[in-house]
Amino acid sequence: VAVAIARLLELPISWWGWIAFAALIGHIWPVFARFKGGKGVATFFGVVLTLCWLVGLIALAIWLLLAAVFRYSSLAALGATLAFPVILYWWVGPLWLWPSVAMSLL
Questions:
Q1: Neighbours of 88 (CB within 10 A)
Q2: Are 95 and 70 in contact (CB under 8 A)?
Q3: Contact 64/34 with Cβ under 8 angstroms?
């Protein structure tokens, strides 16, 4: 939602990656839950699909493939999030490189 609002407000495109990063942090460590637990993987895919839907679909396909092969959702999520900056850099260029690396390291 945060990235979609940034798009509607016509904020600079270079900000979108950092807005996505802030949304991800807010969902991984929610203030109202005393910074414990969150829905990081679901938020990650929502943010990625909002930033660049094609890269989001590729990351989702990687997650599905890894989940089917290894039968571990957490391992699939790690694989998809680590592949995300590489795919995004290949598809979009250096525009969101550092926010995507930061999101992957969370």
A1: 27
A2: no
A3: no
Task: Tell me the angle at which helices 53-70 and 73-92 cross, rounded to the nearest 10 degrees.
Answer: 150
What is the rounded CA–CA span in Å between residue 45 and residue 60?
A: 7
Structure tokens that stand for 32 in this block: 């109202």
C-alpha 64/C-alpha 57 separation (Å) is 10
> Cβ(83)–Cβ(59) under 8 Å?
yes
pTM for this predicted structure? 0.79
d(CA 42, CA 28): 10
Cβ pair 38, 29 in contact under 8 A: yes
Instruction: Give the tens place of pLDDT for each residue, 43-55.
Output: 889 988 988 899 9
Alpha helices in 11-96 (DSSP H): 16-28, 40-51, 53-70, 73-92
Residue whose tokens read 């995300």: 84
